[in-house]
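Forwarding these from the shared drive since the link keeps breaking.
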Amino acid sequence: MTVREHAVAREGRRPRAGAVEAAARIRAAGGFDAPLGVVLGTGLGGIADRLEDAWAIASRDTGWLASSTATGHRGRLVCGRLGGRPVVMLQGRVHAYEGFPPEMLTRGVELLAALGVRTLLLTNASGGLRPDMQGGELLVMNDHLDFVARPWGEGLEPMVGTVAPAAGLWYDPALVERALAATRAAGLPARQGVYAYLLGPSYETRAEYRMLRVMGADAVGMSTVPEVVVGRLLGLDVAAVSVVTNVARPDAPELTDADEVIRLAADSAEGVWAIVNALLERAVPG
């Protein structure tokens, strides 16, 4: 973390004015606030279709979000209910490899915060780095390695007198345990571990896979970490889960196909859905 980010974490932050204005437009058009926000990554957008009383708007129509060009990212914001409790979801995100600047990567999280979100669940698809992993299992992130290392959150508005949670603890341990308990109860494979964030869009070389394993990474992907950092700087409780869609075996490499990644991620939706339910129960106690 940069010196500036440490100062920001102590001071406290809030979404930029554009996010606040977009949230007001969404409410006026029929959307609503929610305590739980979810960002749905590659292949997981269909989870939002399970919400009751759903209201949706295209990302580009918010006047704040950009439309993703990445495969498997629908590009909508969906407000809905689960068991009568409000949830807001983003079907997809934008990535740095699409040509977007750093400040665009975190606009979705800012908008969720402006819509009242206090607990944030981020999801993605990743490549597994441990030989005992299997395609389709979930990695509940408990830490990350940021190999892109930009000053995430630099543009957020200062909020004097409010102290954000400790910035060094990116992932709420209680949420990690709750997510793992939800997958165990559902009988689905999951573990906790470290996610490595690389720029992409190319998949890693065999040498890079070996390096990442030595450095302690359990999975590698091209998103999420900027959103984690900004979510924490905004004072949100953050959890992140990655669907392992392929396992990197440097000594026996296989081709990774984007369509196969999307299919495997979609097949793991039940595990992510179980985590959504568990986190919503915490965000809105029954």
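-- next protein --
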Amino acid sequence: MTYCVGLLLNQGMVLLSDTRTNAGLDNIATYRKMFVFEVPGERVITILTAGSLSVTQTTIARLKEAIEDVDATETTSIMKAPTMLKVAEIVGNTLAAVRRDIDEKLAAMNQGASASMIVAGQRRGGDMRMFLIYPEGNFIEATEDTPFLQIGEHKYGKPILDRVVKPSTSLTDAQKAVLLSMDSTLRSNLSVGMPLDLMTIEKDQCRVGTRRRIEAGDAQFKAMSEAWSKALREGFAQISI
């Protein structure tokens, strides 16, 4: 399984993903789940993936193939699409087509495969937008009322986002929020694991701002985790009933 989260804020966007993929307790591997497509200053698109690895890898491969196609058009390539809405439609259609193809191959074994994605980005002259793409290809968009989207094992990390994250949250505080959200998930679910990929995109820059790979044992992440645990214990002790 996995956990990915994206925040859409007034100052920009913050995205975080883990890298653990497992098919049972004895078959655990590491795969990147954050993919970036960028022409600095013109457009930046980030895709986070969760679900069947066969579905997500094939979908990303087809999207890359469409970008490299000499006959690529605004309706086939996410790097030529005129709006982020059109980008979401292309990704959704590609994901749905891949899922159907793989489901047909698995039908004889009464099995299926599914995946979901977060698509976030901005093109020059357009607004920052973030979408959650469902396995069927339909999607919803992050809004001012709900400025974050999650896929995978999201329930453990959602409470802190609900309490802390607002559109006015700074990019610095937003990074702290998603990392603590991930820390809660790591502690509660063994199917989510290190290393982590963290990225920020500043509003109207149309390029990746900061990008960081957080390995297991990272001193800064460990200190943040311990400080959060201590703060929760102290807060709990101060509450009376």
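The chain has a mean pLDDT of 94. The radius of gyration is 18 Å.

- D.
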